[in-house]
Every structure is written in C-alpha cells, then in structure tokens.
Design goal:
By secondary structure, this protein is mainly α. It is built from two helices and no strands.
Length: 67
C-alpha cells in the first residue's frame, strides 16, 4: 500500500470519528444510524493510522505532500 493521505486529511478524519463517538456516547444518535456511523468512524480511524485510503487509489488521488 502506497501512502496517499496527507496530514490534514488524517486530522480531519480523526476529528470526524471523535465527533461521531461523542454523539453516540451522549445518546444523540442511536439504532441503525449509530451502527452505520460507528462503522464509518472505525474505518476513518484505521485509514488515518495507515495513511492509506482505498477509495483514493483507483482515481489516483493523493492528499500527501510531494517531497
């Protein structure tokens, strides 16, 4: 896997995952919506940690800075 995520992209995904977690733990979201958003939050966190987004690869997108 070639890294294709920049720092800003990783931070944005982390913040979004944290917001979803806060909404879940404060009972703002529940049921199917909570499950779907929770799964999305987990995916965001995993892709942030590995710096690779599988959806970017087929389109040749990279938010990573060129060196």
């Amino acid at each position: 896997m070639k890294k294709n995520m920049g720092q800003a992209d990783k931070i944005f995904r982390g913040i979004l995952a944290a917001v979803i977690a806060i909404l879940y733990f404060t009972n703002v979201i529940s049921g199917i919506v909570a499950v779907v958003l929770g799964a999305l939050a987990v995916i965001f966190l995993i892709t942030s940690f590995v710096s690779f987004c599988p959806l970017y690869a087929p389109f040749g997108i990279s938010t990573r800075e060129k060196k």
